[in-house]
Amino acid sequence: MKYIIKISVILIIGFLAMSMSTPKKDVKVICQLEFASTNDSLSLFQFDGLGFELIKKIGHKNQTFEFTVPKSKPTFYYIGTDNQNIKSIILGSEKHVEINGNIKKIRQITFKSEINNTYKKMMNAATALKQKSITERGNLVKLLRAGQDISGAAKKLAEIDQEKLALLEDTKKKNKFLGNINTLYTYLSFHNNRGQYEQEIDYFGNEYFKLVDFSQDDFNRTPTVYDAILKYTTMLSKTRGLPKEKLEEFVDKVLNRIPKNTMAFKMGLGGVIGALGQKNHASYAKYAKQFIDLYNNDGSQNTVNLITRYSRMKNLVIGGIAPDFTMKTPDGTDLNLKDLRGKYVLLDFWASWCGPCRKENPNVVKVYNEYKDQGFEILSISLDKNKGRWLQAIKKDQLDWYHVSDLKGWSNRVGKMYNVHSVPYQILLDPDGKIIATGMRASSPTNSLEANLKKIFR
């Protein structure tokens, strides 16, 4: 009897040892990556709502990297050599995943994984249908502008809508997680689904996520929430003449559909911030502050970076005091922004090589000549590198106002200070240096330089 007990104890100890070395609840990932040098490592990341957070970093044996993640519902991770050179991967639901490729070409690696390959096929199909609908919508708009019959183009858009819905239904049958993701990308055409809406922007703003059920737990495990809401908000921010109040109304409606205190909400809010921050949009500060108030103690370096950026950018939105600067004029003298206090001042970021800037210049000249004797001034900051071309453009376009540049192109110190990512970009200041309008365009009926000055000097 004692021998039986002894053998049983040995078996139990052996079983426990095996369980501790290879937990049954772990997913094993084997990455065979060619051209990995001795010091090369592979990192595993997850998206934290703003950026990538390092989970683990591993070395290799004979160009084979091995790691495990906890078994779970399908969850997005990212693998790569660093957070700039990565590829997304869905892990958690499969016991074993193999990865093959070249460590120098991470974005081209392939997976032996049913869910990842199904996801890739779905996204390729969704992207192709999106491009088809963009092309056909463009054709429809051309016909509308020409006063021609649009029924044929509308019918083609309706057929594409049905293809999108068929893809969605097929994906849902194969995998619920991927089906929920696909709802984020299933946007149906305005001309065939307009319902009560007279304007396409109202349809887009209110119905873009019509098919999405944000209450589904799946959305807490996929950064496609961030991606989709970023693209949605970017489109709103690029819509000419759309007041910031209207943009915020649309965005708030979407965010209000996502359960609070969830990862999905954090990623959705992060997508809004990502879109508006790229555009220096006047609504950026509102959503950045909301994120900071909710997540400032989450321990993420990405949140710390946002707090730093917000403290710098909050003065760059309407109501903030424009940061002061001094820069060289064409003749080499220093000009300080504060020297222009007491007048309404337009900060005009441009460059001689910028086609849209040169196209905008005649409108700015016209407005300047109309208001320069009423207390209005312009200070143009050039993102040129070549002084000769800069001066030639000033003369040719008859820009008879103040000009400065450090001739460092996109590295222009004032451009970086004001977070300028595209030109032309205009900021209007009141006599005290307070920002009263940003992102103006001559074509905008409500936010052009002329429209703003008419309100001031009426």
How do the helices and strands line up, and which of them pair or pack?
Layout: H1 2-21, E1 26-34, E2 42-47, E3 52-58, E4 64-70, E5 75-82, E6 85-91, E7 96-102, E8 110-112, H2 114-145, H3 151-174, H4 176-183, H5 190-193, H6 200-207, H7 224-237, H8 244-256, H9 263-278, H10 284-295, H11 301-313, E9 326-328, E10 334-336, E11 344-350, H12 355-371, E12 376-382, H13 387-396, E13 402-404, H14 413-417, E14 425-429, E15 435-438, H15 449-457
Helix pairs in contact: 2-3, 3-4, 7-9, 9-10, 10-11
Taking the alpha carbons of the first and last residues, their distance comes to 105 Å
Sequence of strands across the biggest β-sheet: 13-12-11-14-15
- Total beta-strand segments: 15
Please indicate the percent range of residues in DSSP E strands (runs of 2 or more).
15-25%
Question: What general outline do the C-alpha atoms trace?
Answer: globular
Helix content: 40-55%
Oligomer: single chain
Structural class: alpha+beta
**Order of helices and strands, N to C?**
HEEEEEEEEHHHHHHHHHHEEEHEHEHEEH
Which stretches are poorly predicted, pLDDT < 50 over at least 5 residues? 1-22
Q: Largest sheet at a glance?
A: 5 strands, mixed
**What number is the mean pLDDT?**
91
- Helix tally equals 15
